[in-house]
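seq as requested:
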Amino acid sequence: MEKIDAKLKPFDELRKRAEDLLSQTVEEPQSTGENDVKKLVNAIQVHQIELEIQNDELRRAQLELEESKQRYADLFDYAPVGYLVLDLEGVVLDSNFTGASLLGVERRHLLKKKFSDFIASEFQDVFYFHRKSVSKSRTRQTCKLQLEKKDGTPFYASIESIAKQDADGNFLQINTTVTDIDTLVLAEEALRKAYDSMEEVVEKRTIELVKTNKKLRRELKHRKRTEKALLESEQRYRAVVESQTELICRFLPDGSLTFVNNAYSRCFGKKPAELIGHRFLDQVPQEDLEKVEKHLAAINRENPIATIKHRAKQPDGAIRWQEWIDRAIFDDQGRVKEFQSVGRDITERVKAEQALRRSEQRFRLVADFTYNWEYWIAPDGNYIYVSPSCERITGYHPDEFMRDAGLFQKIIHPDDFALVGRHFNKDLLCRDTKSLDFRIRPRNGKERWIAHICQPVYDDNGQFVGRRASNRDITNRKLVEEALNEAQKDLERRVEERTSELKTAAKKLKTKQKELLRHKAKLELVNKDLLETNRAVSVLARNIDKNRRDAESRFAKTISSKILPLVEDLKKAKTLDSVLLGLDFLTANVQDLSNDLTGKINLLASLTPTELRVASMIKKGQPSRRIADKLCVSWHTIKSHRRNNRKKLNIQNSAINLESYLRSTMW
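struct tokens:
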């Protein structure tokens, strides 16, 4: 504000001089008739002052806009990562100082040049498809390129781009960030080669140990699973790093934040307004606070950019690792006036590095504490590695083998020296695994047997880099084999004697077996007859039981559905004809029950109560019209009942008289 007031001071003096001049030139009105003119003059003067105040406010706003514009220009120019503005053909329209510095050219010489001129030939297609993807998509696109500086120095860079559109949705330009990841790529490549080399050594050693020790095989399988989990964890870390949006902030030397982007706000779970004005050091754990303060204090004009890794507290209380690239912005006197930082979350990478170190330590422990005598000999005959187990088997310390490459040949038993010599001379460059059992004379002079297995070792380029071998003490096994040979000879003699006795007993058993088979055939015939009889009795019993249940069900159904309703009708009958007709129906249904119980065929059971009444009246010789009058239905309905009765009573021949048939069939 002091700077703004200083710039506005000449305008204040000019306004004061104008007011003094106005007071000297304006005369006091002489008559009361001029009061309106006086009021008008005062109003004009007030309006003039208001216009001057508004003009002052506009000048202040303009100065603030210029300062804000300069602030964001500094944010663009002095960012610790390269910012480029490209057209849709990849021509550089604008760049910050960091972008020009990464490419090794001055900023003014970079403009109007194609960005592809700085891309290695094998990555030209990658950038072409990246640019096409950006122009078609409305989201951020990233890729990894190998760039070449003006002097030809190659380096790897991470490219992140997004297209800028006008109000109609047409793409105008591509905004791109360039981050130097050469150190990270080289470190990853070194870690990958070290990991691949270690994995190859472990895999070969595992194959050898599996053949000799079951317990160690289970441990190696567990280690395989651990390696797979480590690889999956490393892949997850890489995916997180590639998709993570960078955190950008600016802060004063005392740590007070002056600017944060949305990614920074999301990371710490607050809005930008809640973060600006507060110290970012509040998110740093106490144990890392001193390291961060020393890191910031070490940044100066000679070293304006520095990188640091430290932990940060999250809104949920969790602690995560972050990597920050800090750049200082200096004033005219060379003092730091502000810092600009770009950060990313590296928690997964830190965990992966820790896991890799633990894995490497475990592999070293497995090699040093293996039970067998392991060694790796170089093409020139000198030892690269000798496991401590050699001292248990030979009595010689590993350092003695490292100093004397011929010590191994010196302790070979004289009777086996020629055999071992042929093995080394013939199988030295063979790619297959070779094995051999021979004797040695340890330091104590007691003869020992060892099982030797070896194979050549090649690097990624197929270059022979030595031979790996494993020697296992099998002295006790050899002694056991000799004892087993003697025991086997004695066992063979006893087996021959016992075989002769068993042959005699076998003949007697065959004779007895034939007699038993004859008795068995007779018993099977008797058993078959009994089973058939039992099945017939079971079927008969089930049928009798089913018929009884069906008869009981039909009996109960007939009483409830036919007889009981007829009894109720008899109770309500008022004429003799109604009583006689009801008795006929009742007699017919009782006769049905009797037929059912005695097993006779009952065709009348299929008739409905109404059809049964019609059949009873037809049997008595009553005509259809009289039946219709008594039942209070139409003559056509009675004719329909007649047809139904013939159909249900199975009277197919129309010549048969229904009345005669019913008299012969019904009660």
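Residues 82-180 form a domain with the Beta-Lactamase fold (CATH 3.30.450.20).
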